[in-house]
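Here is one chain, start to finish.
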Amino acid sequence: MISATNSTSSLMSLYYTMYSQDPTLMDVVNINSLSTMLQPLESATSDPSGSNSSTATASTDALSSVWNSLNLLNTQATPFLTTDDSNVFNQMTTTSSDSSNVTATTSPGATLASYSVGVSQLADTQETTGSTLSANGTTLSNGLGAPTTYTFNISTNGGSTTPIALTVNPGDTNCTVMQNMADAINAASNSGVSAQVLSSQDAFGNLKSTMLLDATNTGTDNGFTITDASGNLAAIAGLGNSPTIAAQDASLTVDGVAMDSQSNNVAIDDGNVTLNLYGQTSKNASVSVTADTSGITDQVQSFIQQYNSTIQSLSQNSPYIDPNISDDLTSFASENSFDLQNIGITVNSDNTLTLDQNTFQSSLSTDPTDTMNLISGPAGLIANAGSVAQNAVTEPLEALSSGVSLTSPDGSSVGLFSSVSPSLQYQMNNSLLNMSFNTSGSFYDTYV
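Its structure:
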């Protein structure tokens, strides 16, 4: 590490080191030139005003700002680089020529395809209406001298049976008993049936109560029957009546192949596409699964915004940052600007990027594979930028700096780039110090 407490001692120390390594250098180096170059170092590190502290703070702030920007860039790049179905380019969207009767949803892994769908029947739930009784009458508790427990079974066509038990007290009104029956059915969450009590009035203003039962799911497997197990409460309440609406399956064709479904949500393409049925179609609907070019474009735009922000951060903090980071980050775009331009991405003179969304979406539609490879393939724009960002943020913060430092009078370490102008850096590295010894690298690689 060079101590720049004063130019004379620094100069003599530097010359002594150089001479001990290779005496012939004394014939090459002009001491006056070297002294002139070291003067800014002395002023940068011996200023009693406290500028060293400010410089060190500025350097730390610069490193932190660039690190944060690179970290955000790494985060933006990650969804493009995953190898599973969550990759940005696996986003799908669907369209339907008859969206009032049939639509589709997709999950990751769906196949890009178009389907011809005809719907002749929707799946439906069974509905059973019980007997209508006087709300204030006691038909359901008639003859009871003490609280009595009744049991009835709910059996579905799918093979499940759920017993329901409740107690009826002497004098309970029909409305009360029906409500207790409905509550008991609804409390049995696995029965496959929901119940409610409907209230009405007859022509004379008398209150009436009726139980209404509905299967909780569509399809013939979810049709149900109710039978008494002890007593005859269910029969008197009319729960064993014939269905008002019978359970039924959906009937449809997909690309000419007939299908039945218990549900109006029909899975195809190994479960990666779901057809959602809302009504009968008068003619086959065309349902297409395509790449979500709009969603993909939005995420590419977000990446480019962060890419540009990172480029600007590197530029603004360049006196403190290893220039190789900026070079590595922008190398792919610079070397592939023509191909990027063809898909709607312009490389600007300051190395930032501009996205023409219409051109990019058109490229996604007409040439999705090449577009994806250029953006996020193993050697693509985002793969390159993501790799640079990831490598940078996984290293210590100091790794972003030039790696060259000075010792100020108070003993603090100050980055050389924070003290020397870019023109002086170039001058020192190229005019004076770019002398190769038997080891590799510049003078600073050898002596600093």
